[in-house]
């Protein structure tokens, strides 16, 4: 009976052991918290960069929407007005604007004649036409990359 | 220990989140989107596409583009729902050869819905791994509350095919409630109103000791935000036909532009009362190009979709009735799904329940966030012992003019410490009193005084010169230690305030409310005191300048300055803030003029060595500046 009691006592963790175990647990928790904060700060930087990109993209989307309208207007000029100098002036101004955007890293996505690639192209419709099936026949809305990354895909018609 | 991915596997879109540093965060996919279209496609070259890329090619490849697979998962081929959906799906379905389930054809192979769902989950897993730079092996996936056992099992199988150990399949409404921490509230009835892109779900949850139980579900599997877009499109097409006589409904390219514009208009009308749909060159006929220009008001949109909103509210009422509950029995309402951003929907819900719904978390992400939280709970990331509290009310001290200067703002996570340097308000002030305040009101006496101490033995010096550093330190148990130290003598005093947050919830709420009610009045008072303090400081500085300059100031200037000082002194204790500001400005200009003259005179004296200050061994302007508030004289 006494032996049993002694054994039990020997197997009982001492206060020091309990404290050491708790210390390890708390130290690990503390290290984790500090590491989490360090990682959070790193990720926060990435997130801010991501946010900046989103904001840049947001206003670029709006500007490009406006450029699309100008382009539509240009495509609709009646033949007898096509050589009008005042009209030419307006479109020169708009191309100057696009040139400026290109300097900021905007590039147009090649589409017509290219093989349809959903990474960069969005199919709006299929049409019958000459040429290989699955090739872009016409661009409805130009697509752009911003600093090499997709800003918006080209909206295209594809040969059936 | 790898992270557990929380996944909201949606009918139209999916989202994913993890727990990081104890709080949930949405993970963007490879394309940078916070949600991923739940679409899978196989191209002619046998290339598998998932997400937005699959969506972009859908038109050219309808038979091999699988969307809305969630409508089929775990269902029997002869289910009423499957039969209904079959008509709307562009891809082929058949009954599983061994009977029972559904199979869909993609390329020349037949796949089960769980295999298709697995392809979506695989992309999410891969993108999360790329983003986090570590393997993801475990996940929590959500499903609608009405999913039966077979649908839940199939969802779990989908996860396993994707290489994920699915720790649990949890209900979407439960996840949403978890995201708002509502699982901690005991004995509450919660309504989750989930208006997604294509489905409307209503769930009633009962939170009791340690469990969240789904008491009832309802909804409409074919009612969603997309219907709202459709209604706007129909209206645009009809208006254009009325105005221009051209039917755009047959022109797929025009419709594409109208669809985008309709969605944009809908989103804009959640924040503004009117929007413009402006689509130049929408079509071109023999008479030349035509433009579409329409104004759409919020009221008009609400009128268009009024029936849909009413239907959703009726479904809520019906679901409540099924379990004999009244709207007044509901303690909390949670909004899920992008369409719930619409003010009219929020208004109708508020009207029905007579309560503000929970809507602070992005309704497109709330379910994934809840799933991540469930993962965190299972992993032990969110342990109760690690839950850190916040200070419910601001803590500060009283400074010159009975102003409450806040050191630790409300809702700051504790433990935390903050210190700030203050100075004296009068020349040769021997002591300062530190009065510790709690509350949101700008005037000291409107707040609760937690305690005070006096720091004395400050060496005689002009006002603003002594530097007294006041430090606040709150530990994790909410015990506040306040100390004040005179930097020159290192003499310090401190007090310990236990139970700084020992106020009851009602008291805290009352104090917050008081602050809101009195906000305007308090601001005026504070402005007045700040103006008076500024006037006081200027009077003090002007008198000092005149005294120090002695006869270097032209008698005329000196006389004018003295006149302005006495004028300001006379009115500064009245409550006329405008007048005090005006007189302060006048005095300031006179003193500046004197300063400029003196500076010029001094320059003219160069290169003689510059004059030493009259007193002390250090010019005052070289001393570190004491900040902000000053103590009133004891």
Features:
heterodimer; A: alpha+beta; Nucleotide Exchange Factor Grpe, Chain A, domain 2; three-stranded mixed sheet; 18% strand; elongated; B: 634 residues; Nucleotidyltransferase, domain 5; Actin, Chain A, domain 4; 36% helix
Give an account of the 3D structure.
- By secondary structure, chain A is α+β, with helices and mostly antiparallel strands.
- Chain A folds into two domains: 91 residues; 56 residues, Head domain of nucleotide exchange factor GrpE (Nucleotide Exchange Factor Grpe, Chain A, domain 2).
- Chain A is built from three helices and six strands, in the order H-H-H-E-E-E-E-E-E.
- In chain A, strands 1-4-5 form a three-stranded antiparallel sheet. Chain A has a three-stranded mixed sheet with strand order 2-6-3, with no helix packed on it.
- In chain A, strand 4 and strand 5 form a beta hairpin.
- Chain A is elongated, with a radius of gyration of 32 Å.
- Chain A starts with a helix and ends with a strand.
- Chain B has 634 residues and is α+β, with helices and mostly antiparallel strands.
- Chain B has four domains: 177 residues, Nucleotidyltransferase, domain 5 (2-Layer Sandwich); 82 residues, ATPase, substrate binding domain, subdomain 4 (Actin, Chain A, domain 4); 125 residues, Substrate Binding Domain Of DNAk, Chain A, domain 1 (Sandwich); 96 residues, Substrate Binding Domain Of Dnak, Chain:A, Domain 2 (Up-down Bundle), CATH 1.20.1270.10.
- Helix content of chain B is 36%, strand content 25%.
- Chain B contains 15 helices and 26 strands.
- In chain B, strands 1, 2, 3, 4, 11 and 12 form a six-stranded mixed sheet that branches. A four-stranded mixed sheet of chain B has the order 15-14-13-18, with helices on both faces. A four-stranded antiparallel sheet of chain B has the order 20-19-22-23, with no helix packed on it.
- In chain B, strand 25 and strand 26 form a beta hairpin.
- The longest helix of chain B has 31 residues.
- The two termini of chain B are 59 Å apart.
- About 4% of the residues of chain B have low confidence.
- At the A-B interface, helix 2 and strand 2 of A face helix 1, helix 7 and strand 16 of B.
């Amino acid at each position: 009976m006494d032996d049993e009691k002694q054994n039990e006592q020997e197997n009982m963790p001492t206060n020091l052991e309990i404290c050491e175990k708790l210390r390890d647990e708390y130290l690990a928790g503390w290290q984790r918290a500090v590491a989490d904060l360090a990682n959070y700060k790193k990720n926060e930087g990435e997130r801010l960069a991501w946010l900046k990109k989103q904001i840049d993209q947001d206003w670029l989307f709006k500007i490009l929407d406006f450029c699309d309208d100008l382009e539509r207007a240009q495509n609709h000029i009646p033949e007898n007005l096509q050589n009008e100098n005042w009209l030419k002036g307006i479109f020169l101004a708009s191309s100057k604007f696009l040139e400026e955007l290109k300097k900021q890293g905007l590039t147009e996505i090649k589409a017509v004649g290219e093989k349809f690639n959903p990474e960069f192209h969005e199919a709006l419709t299929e049409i019958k036409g000459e040429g290989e099936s699955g090739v872009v026949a016409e661009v409805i809305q130009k697509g752009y990359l911003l600093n090499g990354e997709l800003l918006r895909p080209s909206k295209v018609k594809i040969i059936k | 220990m790898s992270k557990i991915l929380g996944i909201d596997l949606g009918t139209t879109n999916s989202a994913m989140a993890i727990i990081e540093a104890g709080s949930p965060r949405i993970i963007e996919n490879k394309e940078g989107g916070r949600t991923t279209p739940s679409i899978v496609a196989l191209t002619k070259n046998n290339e598998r596409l998932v997400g937005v890329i699959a969506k972009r090619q859908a038109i050219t490849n309808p038979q091999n583009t699988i969307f809305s697979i969630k409508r089929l998962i775990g269902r029997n081929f002869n289910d009423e729902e499957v039969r209904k959906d079959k008509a709307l799906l562009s891809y082929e379905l058949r009954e599983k050869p061994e009977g029972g389930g559904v199979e869909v054809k993609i390329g020349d192979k037949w796949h089960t819905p769980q295999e298709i769902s697995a392809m979506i989950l695989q992309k999410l897993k891969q993108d999360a791994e790329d983003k986090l730079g570590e393997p993801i092996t475990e996940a929590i996936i959500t499903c609608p509350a009405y999913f039966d056992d077979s649908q839940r099992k199939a969802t779990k199988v989908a996860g396993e095919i994707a290489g994920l150990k699915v720790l649990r399949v949890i209900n979407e409404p439960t996840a949403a409630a978890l995201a708002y921490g509502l699982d901690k509230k005991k004995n509450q009835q919660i309504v989750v109103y989930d208006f997604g892109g294509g489905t409307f779900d209503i769930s009633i949850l009962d939170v009791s000791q340690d469990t969240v139980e789904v008491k009832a579900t309802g909804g409409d599997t074919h009612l969603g935000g997309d219907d709202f877009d459709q209604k706007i499109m129909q209206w645009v097409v009809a208006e254009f036909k009325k105005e221009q006589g051209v039917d755009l409904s047959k022109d797929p390219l025009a419709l594409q532009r109208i669809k985008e514009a309709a969605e944009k208009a809908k989103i804009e009308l959640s924040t503004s009362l009117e929007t413009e749909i402006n689509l130049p060159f929408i079509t071109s006929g023999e008479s030349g190009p035509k433009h579409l220009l329409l104004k759409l008001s919020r009221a008009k949109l609400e009128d268009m979709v009024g029936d849909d909103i009413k239907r959703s509210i009726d479904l809520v009422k019906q679901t409540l009735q099924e379990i004999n509950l009244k709207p007044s029995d509901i303690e909390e309402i949670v909004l899920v799904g992008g369409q719930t951003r619409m003010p009219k929907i929020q208004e109708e819900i508020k009207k029905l329940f007579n309560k503000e719904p929970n809507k602070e978390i992005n309704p497109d992400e709330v379910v994934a966030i809840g799933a991540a939280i469930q993962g965190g709970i299972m992993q032990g990331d969110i342990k109760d012992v690690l839950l850190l509290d916040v200070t419910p009310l601001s803590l500060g001290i009283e400074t010159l003019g009975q102003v409450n200067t806040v050191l630790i703002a409300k809702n700051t996570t504790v433990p935390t410490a903050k210190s700030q340097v203050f100075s004296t308000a009068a020349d040769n002030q021997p002591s300062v009193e530190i009065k510790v305040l709690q509350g949101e009101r700008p005037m000291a006496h409107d707040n609760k005084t937690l305690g005070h101490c006096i720091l004395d033995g400050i060496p005689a010096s002009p006002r603003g010169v002594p530097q007294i550093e006041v430090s606040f330190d709150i530990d994790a148990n909410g015990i506040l230690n306040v100390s004040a130290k005179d930097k020159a003598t290192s003499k310090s005093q401190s007090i310990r305030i236990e139970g700084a947050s020992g106020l009851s919830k009602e008291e805290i709420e009352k104090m917050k409310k008081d602050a809101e009610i009195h906000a305007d009045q308090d601001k005026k008072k504070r402005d007045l005191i700040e103006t008076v303090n500024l006037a006081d400081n200027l009077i003090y500085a002007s008198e000092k300048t005149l005294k120090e300059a002695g006869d270097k100031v032209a008698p005329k200037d000196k006389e004018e300055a003295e006149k302005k000082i006495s004028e300001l002194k006379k009115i500064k204790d009245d409550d006329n803030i405008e007048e005090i500001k005006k007189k302060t400005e006048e005095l300031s200009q006179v003193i500046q003029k004197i300063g400029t003259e003196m500076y010029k005179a001094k320059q003219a004296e160069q290169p003689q060595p510059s004059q030493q200050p009259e007193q002390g061994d250090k010019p005052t302007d070289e001393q570190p500046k004491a900040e902000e508030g000053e103590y009133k004289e004891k």
